[in-house]
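Take a look at the protein record below with the fold in mind.
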Amino acid sequence: DEEVAAKIASLRKKSVPGSPKSVIAISAVAHHHIDELLRALLPAVERARTARQQQVTEAAIPVINEATQPDLWQVVKEGEQLVVKGAKIEGFAARTDWSNDASVERLRDILRKAGVAKELKRQGAEDGATVRIGAHELEWLG
């Protein structure tokens, strides 16, 4: 017991009180000073949990831009006209055969499925309004 006490005293002299290197003598068998150890460790555990949660939160926030999501689009108002912008949507418009009604209707279906139609309506597009997509203009039918 005296030898253990002397070693603990020696270690305590070398350590800085309150620092992570503080010495707490415990006995798991006799359950001595376990609560003291747990109280001393609690701030470090809480810091580690907070840091871990922050890392998880930061990792969970995706970076969304046209490079990572080429199918992104937006509807903007230019004067009185609504304009749909986005590489993928503009690509569909460029490949559309504008002289073929079925082809134009297919583009309208794509706009509905992508959510563009809902956004056009939200921004006030009414039947007969002209919507520009890339270099093309489309009569909006709602």
